[in-house]
Amino acid sequence: MLRYNKEDLRQMRFDMHVHTTASDGVFSPTEIVRQAQALRLTGLAITDHDTLDGLAEAQAAVKESSVSLVYGVELNCSLGPEEDAPEVHVLGYFFDLENAALNAKLRQLQEHRRLRGQKMLAVLAELGMPLDAAILNDYAESGSVGRGMIARKLVEAGYVQDKKEAFAKWLDVGKPGYVPRLHLTVAEAVQLLHGAGGLAVLAHPAQYHNDALPAQLAPFGLDGLECRHPDQPPELQPRYLQMAAQLGLAVTGGSDCHTEGLGAYTMNGEEMRELVQRWLRLPQARERKRPLWGV
Ligand SMILES: [Zn+2]
Ligand SMILES: [Zn+2]
After folding, report:
1. pTM (2 decimals)?
2. Which of 128, 154, 238, 257 is most exposed, with the fewest beta carbons within 10 Å of its own?
3. Of 50-54, 104-108, 135-139, 199-203, where does mean pLDDT reach its minimum?
4. DSSP letters of 110-138?
5. pLDDT of residue 106
6. How high is the mean pLDDT of the chain?
7. Domain ranges of the chain
């Protein structure tokens, strides 16, 4: 267990929040692993939106590298049953890639996302902003048709200046181009991940503009809080580290990299060890092999 001393563990850097072309990132899993190797990251978690599709490729790619891979996913969840309930993201780690319930639920979410993409394009066309429907085929293949993708296409087509404007004018909840989507609740997401032998971590708490939220959601069985994230600059980190300690949650960190910034936010080996120990306490995890890096 203690193959590494404290200093070794502190030097380690794991980027635990990374997107690839399997959802709305621009780099393939293989390219991301190469970049992680060049940055000398100890490890990374590929956490695409509602899909595990990039993980097999990443697993093959890390074999050629010194980078450790953690299986990850970012589940888009809803805070309530109503259609425009705020969105909350839950990161899953260390689950069984073959778990039937997890895979079935993700397929259902992807199918819904695909139909939602078609509907969004229809609404935007009615509003005088037609986009080439062919983009849906690319997205359908990648299993991820999100508002982020549509926003990027609106920018590329010159309908808006930037993604921020795309959301503020058209895609935010209550705006004309917004189409509601099927969501998991946080409780469902935690159950799904625990059932698959994985951990559940609340992503980027600063994005919800509600510091009471982690305490509200922790009782659903959350295992960790993403304390380091680009939306939480260093001066905000003590607040989230303290929150994690008060709520008894593990600390995680990641860059949420879609285009650039891989490795800019990470967690160290001590934090990883805490996370792995929590994972080993899950009944579903006991029979499985422990992660290779031995922290
Ligand atoms: Zn997110
Ligand atoms: Zn993300």
Report:
1. 0.82
2. 128
3. 135-139
4. HHHHHHHHHHHHHHHHHTT----TTHHHH
5. 95
6. 89
7. 6-99+186-285, 108-171
